[in-house]
Amino acid sequence: QVQLVESGGGLVQAGGSLRLSCVASGNIFSRYAMGWYRQYPGKQRELVAAITSSGSTTYADSVKGRFAITRDNAKNTVFLQMNSLKPEDTAVYYCYARYALSYWGQGTQVTVSS
Fold this sequence. Notes:
Number of strands: 11
Mean pLDDT: 96
Order of helices and strands: EEEEEEEEEEE
Distance between the termini: 40 Å
Strand content: over 45%
Oligomer: single chain
Shape: globular
Structural class: mainly beta
Number of helices: 0
């Protein structure tokens, strides 16, 4: 069982920045594929960004050039740097980890005011 603890969400004005962090339990973090999804009210979760165990990254078209996902294997942590935030980025952001099975964090609210 992998536990994921997210932090860094909050309220920010449009054009501002936030950095989300997700700390994972366990001692094989470097083997996990990690990523971030977001969910709008009444909608399914959608992929925002992902990073493989080897460091390859994938981004949703809507965040390319504004968001960056990185990982620090020594700290069992994945980050999502979010710049040039827009009101449409307002959502609950979930961290996930995948290694044979998938695990999810509890979610963190990001609110971008116009």
